[in-house]
Amino acid sequence: MARKAAIIGGGVIGGGWAARFLLNGWDVAVFDPDPQAERKISEVLANARASLPALSDIPMPSEGLLSFAGTITEAVEGADYVQESVSERLELKHRVFAQIQQSAPNVLIGSSTSGFKPSELQERAANPGSIFVAHPFNPVYLLPLAEVVPSPQNPPEAVERAKDILRDIGMFPLHVRKEIDAHIADRFLEAVWREALWLVKDGIATTEEIDEAIRMGFGLRWGQMGLFETYRVAGGEAGMKHFMAQFGPCLQWPWTKLTDVPEFNDELVDLIAGQSDAQSGHHTIRELERIRDSNLIGFLRALKDRNWGAGKVLRAHDDKRKAALHAEGKIGDGAPLVMAHLRVLPGWIDYNGHMTESRYLFAGSETCDNFLRLIGADMDYVAGGHSYYTAESHVMHLDEAKLGDALTGTVQVLGADEKRLHLFLSILKDGAPVATVEQILLHVDMKAGKSCPAAPEVLAKLMPIAEAHKALPRPEAVGRHVGQRKS
Question: Which helix (H) or strand (E) holds 211?
Answer without folding.
Answer: helix 207-213
